[in-house]
Design goal:
Elements lengths: L2 E8 L8 E6 L12 H5 L9 H10 L6 E5 L9 H10 L3 E6 L4 H9 L5 E5 L7 H5 L7 H11 L5 E7 L6 H10 L5 E6 L16 H11 L5 E5 L3
The structure holds iron/sulfur cluster (SF4).
Length: 231
């Protein structure tokens, strides 16, 4: 596993749990609003942390940390992910996976083995505008769609989430997302935030008023809709 980052303690990444976060490099998407460009575009140039060092720390922190978040980049690209998570589970930790949903077979394998306790899956945009927001021309939505419908069948606790970008999302897109994920348990709207490591610069955030309107639209389709990243 190419581990490029390790945050020992976070209260933000795993809902309702004290967690650590492990960052893996590489991604099969090129979302213009991605704020981890170096990890996505040139992971080989980023420093790595030996897996054994991570496990040494995880073994010491059993009982202090409750959960481990695996994020990226896109973690499901790693052939070794299943055995890596298995080793974490053997230490007794909860595991949360962040994913773009484009590898449903890995999500299913991990879930069926009982290796995941929580999945946070990105919904980049309405299906019609997925190419724009995942940064891949003529994107084939079928595998993302498969992951959406798998999670809607409640195999494990999960959330869907969308980073809302002024230039990408309209009220109509948000409505289409709602229709798509109708019946979902939890959905988070995250306001786009600029960083110094973006794939594309010059994008903007929605206003608080727009986010509240979008939340209202989605509440007709999803049980729990929340907004992250506004005061
Ligand atoms: S936002 Fe996520 S899915 Fe998109 S390019 Fe970045 S790491 Fe990949």
């Amino acid at each position: 596993m190419e581990i490029h980052g390790f945050q020992k303690t976070t209260l933000l990444d795993y809902p309702e749990h004290i967690a650590s976060t492990i960052f893996l490099g590489g991604c099969n998407f090129r979302c213009p609003f991605c704020h981890n460009a170096s990890l996505v575009l040139s992971p080989a140039n980023q420093p790595t942390i030996p897996e054994e060092e991570i496990f040494k720390t995880l073994r010491k922190r059993v009982g202090i940390i409750e959960g481990i978040c695996i994020t990226g980049g896109e973690p499901t690209l790693y052939p070794g992910l299943v055995s890596f998570i298995h080793k974490i589970k053997e230490l007794g930790y909860l595991v949360k996976l962040d994913t773009n949903g484009n590898n449903p077979h890995i999500i299913k394998e991990l879930t069926k083995n009982g290796y995941l306790d929580y999945i946070a899956m990105d919904i980049k945009n309405s299906r019609e505008k997925y190419s724009l927001s995942c940064g891949i021309d003529s994107f084939d939505i079928s595998r993302v769609n498969e992951s959406v419908f798998y999670l809607l069948s409640n195999p494990v606790d999960y959330e869907f989430r969308t980073t809302v970008v002024r230039e990408h999302h309209t009220k109509r897109d948000i409505q289409h997302i709602g229709e798509w994920i109708q019946g979902a348990k939890a959905y988070y709207l995250q306001s786009y935030k600029d960083s110094d490591d973006m794939i594309q610069t010059g994008l903007g955030s929605p206003t608080k008023q727009e986010l509240l309107e979008y939340k209202d639209v989605l509440s007709s389709y999803v049980q729990n809709v929340s907004i992250r990243g506004i005061d």
